[in-house]
Amino acid sequence: MIPLHVMNLEKTDSKYKRILLKLSGEAFKGCRDYGIDPSFIQKVASEIKAAHDLGVEIAIVIGGGNIFRGLAASENGMNRVTADYTGMLATIMNALALQDALKKIGLDTRVQSAIEIKEIAEPFIPQKANRHLEKKRIVIFAGGTGNPFFTTDTTAALRAAEIDAEVIFKATKVDGVYDCDPVKNTDAKQFDHLTYLDVLNKKLKVMDSTALSLSMDNNIPIVVFNLNHENSILNNLVGLKGATKIGE
Fold this sequence. Notes:
Elements: E1 18-23, H1 38-52, E2 57-62, H2 70-75, H3 80-104, E3 109-113, E4 122-123, H4 126-134, E5 138-142, H5 152-162, E6 167-172, E7 177-178, E8 190-191, E9 193-194, H6 196-202, H7 209-217, E10 222-226, H8 232-237, E11 244-246
Parallel strand pairs: 1-2, 1-6, 2-5, 3-4, 3-5, 6-10, 9-11
Antiparallel strand pairs: 7-8, 10-11
Helix pairs in contact: 1-3, 5-7
């Protein structure tokens, strides 16, 4: 059920017109040990629809860690380049699963891949992505950057800059950024606001340094929030407290 404080929202109530939503592949496991949990994806799709109904233009980048983690595979002896490309293919699988869930609830959706796979996805073309967003289509960016040695966090920062997104919404399983792991330490302190340099200097595990530097260079704020809360995306769009904002 949508809370009373968001039931009567108008489209003008959103703080942002265009956002880049970064979803963790790990989250797609839901309650499973690996793979894709259809019930969790349905929940995510409904959260995205609530945001879309505000008139917000939404682009999405998804990781692939629920299926394959390139860095972990390379640490276990697999060639790093091969491992990273395999991980990129995992992001395409997640993108297709999310696209299917979004289409089932009536949202027009396009998948654009940095790796050419024309039978199931468009190639990534910034102008075309922008046109889709202007037409209120959801655009899912898959295949990472198309290059090894870059994370999907870096992909999110890069794509956000390329489509002129106003903010990156980074979905996590905790309420924001803490000074230590809140799962292991009940006394962990949550930050309401951090600068990009705070995150780098404190070595907080939010995004890798390349992603943070890209965001800082292009002045794109990052909102770190808990996707497991009801109406989490919607509540952050209207500026309710509870997340951590990174920016100047």
